[in-house]
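Notes from the 1:1 (GR / supervisor)

We went over the backlog. Supervisor wanted to see one worked example end to end before approving the batch request, so GR pasted a single chain during the call. The sequence is below; no edits were made to it. Supervisor asked that the structure be written out right there so they could see what the output format looks like.
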Amino acid sequence: MEPLYIILIIVASVIVLIGIWALTEPHILDMTDISLPDKDAAGEGGGLRLFFFSDLHGEFCFISPARLCAQIDKANEEGRLDAVVFGGDIATRKMFGSAGARYLKKITQHCKEIGIPFYGVLGNHDTLLPRVQINECGFTDIGGTYLEMEAANGRKYVLAGVTDSGRKHRVWHQMPEVPEGLPVVCLVHDPDALLHFGKKPDYALCGHLHGGQVKMPFHLEFVLLRHDELPKRGVIEGVHVIEGVPTFISRGIGCGALPIRLLSLPEASVVTINIE
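Structure output shown during the call:
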């Protein structure tokens, strides 16, 4: 066999294997434990525990609500959860809004059964959905407002929400006015918003970037397909300090546009806020 044919067969085989893995990866849930800020930096001051997931994209989410509820139960058994929080993007397109709403309604019902509040904000794709459909999801939308809450250890905090305006007519909404003297955790879909806030929160939880979803060399997935600001600085997923704010960026649990992921597993997280 000619060497060229051998090379072509090897290349074709690699492409097929990558394709199979890209179709398989969206079905694998990666549960992560996140601390803000780093445990070593914060000492023993923690107390706030949140179960956080983002970017459902209901039409292309292959992590069932039953699996997610099981992880919520597990996290709650390991240490009482103060809330379940959702970072936005119910569905990619308006026609699939009902699929996302059905999914989140099941999470809402489960949270009610175990006595844990479920809060969320809207993502850029959610601007396309009618309000009645968003309401069907059941979670408490805290976009543009805040809640004063008390963690299991008695520490008080503020959970503030910022609604995404959508990318077509982008407006960077500011955080709502919050009480002075309490640590503020901001739930905002797009981490780029932190670059445009006037008053900064103490901590932030975000999604939107999908960890790249299909990772390419040199972050070409962002260079070619997107115009987000933070990925240009190498900030795509995980824990970062953005404009002085300890921030966690989730990879999300669903897939946008195409039902594939590559080197970016779906992610749900237990986030501990180590209040200093």
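Supervisor's comment: Helices lie at 3-24, 39-42, 65-78, 97-114, 131-136, 220-225.
Batch request approved.
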